Amino acid sequence: MTRFTAACVQVNSRDDMHDNLARAAVYARDAHAAGARFITFPENVSMMSFGGDKVRAAAFGEQDHPALAFFSDLARELESTLIVGSLHVSVPGEDRVANRCYAIGPDGTVLTSYDKIHMFDVDLANGESYRESKTFRPGDAARLVKTDQANIGLAICYDVRFPHLFRGYAKAGATVLTIPAAFTRTTGQAHWHTLLRARAIETGCFVIAAAQCGDHPGDRQTFGHSLIIDPWGVVLADGGTEPGFITAEIDLERVNEVRAMVPSLRNDHDYSPA
User: Fold this and answer.
1) What are the pLDDT tens digits along the chain (274 aa)?
2) Which residues, by range, are in coiled-coil regions (predicted)?
3) Positions marked catalytic
């Protein structure tokens, strides 16, 4: 398969898992009706809670996670590949939880999972402060997954600021990068489009980034603007600031065309560090 229709579902998740999942499924079914068979969801798609205690209390083990079962059923219903941006998953023997992305095949089988590697531990100039590492255990492994549509490099949100991860994916055979996110409104306005277009241009990959939008518990505000970007850095679809979905046609031949024009993945040259 060299052509397929991809979708980003954009949602405003809050602290009611049942409601969050129901709303996400509505948009996923609409995207399916529009022709998408590769459907992606944002980070924290099942729950946006405020405070470490609430996050831990709302987490489940992988084997009995109701959201994972829900998305497996949805994949079977739609006969589509789903990239579930992230769920909060309890980790045996750990006080912290995993922020875990799942790739699910059209038969509902989990193809692989990826734990967010880079933790958003920052203090912004407007007074916003985040310490993800207090609540989430960082992952330690990249995950490249072969789906019916393409070879996909998995990442989550803050990972986008670490370009070596994506270059590694491209060199390992990825043609599509998925970067689900709950980007803050402050950093999103400044950097979201630029970072995602840069990752596409640097790697010659399509970038598909489903995003959270709107206001959430704890006065959190997310930027929205789910994006689908081609390997030349052209934005094919932008989700704006409201819940919904976007689609775009992915033509994997475009990856070969762009990499032939600018073969930067083959032009690495060894050098001594500063």
Assistant:
1) 689 999 999 999 999 999 999 999 999 999 999 999 999 999 999 999 878 888 998 899 999 999 999 999 999 999 999 999 999 999 998 899 999 999 999 999 999 999 999 998 888 777 777 889 999 999 999 999 999 999 999 999 999 999 999 999 999 999 999 999 999 999 999 999 999 999 999 999 999 999 999 999 888 999 999 999 999 999 999 999 999 999 999 999 999 999 999 999 999 999 999 9
2) none
3) 43, 116, 157
Query: How many CA atoms, within 13 angstroms, populate the side-chain half-sphere of residue 201?
Result: 9
CATH of the domain at 177: 3.60.110.10
- CA–CA separation, 52 and 132 (whole Å): 9
Range of the domain at 237: 3-266
- Of how many residues is the chain composed? 274
271 in a structural domain: no
Query: Any idea which residue has 């990249």 for tokens?
Result: 142
pTM of the model: 0.96
Round to the nearest angstrom and report the end-to-end CA distance of the chain. Answer: 44
Q: Torsion-angle region of residue 101: left (phi > 0), alpha (psi -120 to 50) or beta?
A: beta
Structural domain count of the chain: 1
DSSP-based three-state secondary structure for 141:
coil
